[in-house]
Amino acid sequence: MSKLSNVVPDIYNMLEKLSDGEPLPITEEEIDKTMASMKEAIMHWATPRKRDTDFTVRMSNVGKPSRQMWFEKRDTDKSGDVDGATQIKFLYGHVLEELVLMLVRMAGHNVTDEQKEVTVNGIVGHMDCKINGEVVDVKSASKFAFNKFREGRLAQDDPFGYLGQLAGYEEAEGTKDGGFLVINKESGELCMFEPDDLDKPNITTKINTLLGDLELDKPPELCYNPIPDGKKGNMKLPKGCSWCKYKHECHKDSNDGQGLRTFKYSTGYTYLTEVVSEPKVDEIL
Q: Which of 50, 67, 189, 235 is most exposed, with the fewest beta carbons within 10 Å of its own?
């Protein structure tokens, strides 16, 4: 068994004893520590920092696709980047992550190096923590995102560059068996995803490539290629592009120069790069 693989089962076993009338092994000291961490997280969330508005390559974004980062660097008007509802999601995500670490400690596992600053090739980052000596990134996720971690599919769909972020922290710490401790915000489920070495990028190469791409006069190659939308010849943006704020600028040459066409399906918006057969749903103009 790995150093991390027992974390989730141990938490579940501990919590299930509540149903048998057995109290949890929580101390006043642990409560104080958790509340202090939550207070710090809330204050950090509530206080904008200059680095949040000025473009900077840092460990939290170094794993993102170069083309997206190229557009972000040139985005001088970042006002309104994040709407109110999303800010609330950020808030309870931070709080949930502190509660998860409390459960890890209560289940008898060693949590160290919380928010430790590290540097790789001049790129600075702050890791969430180490658990049992291995770097762990704690995430709160929707059901869809949670399943990517639980089923080990992150390498096939990693638009936020989480694997690059983990690789950077591990490079700085000289470790290699870390992972992601993830809580499903809807169900309360936990999972520990430990990616294979081959799933993680060579972070030194990744950083050097990204820094070079950011200096190009034209944007680098597409982050993700369009995919078929049904069987009638239409092409659409994949999920990795659909949420990106730069998608319209990035794909402005699609549809013979018309740009992306947006259609409202029952499952949400679909962004078509090529329309062969007109969809029988409303188009958002």
A: 50
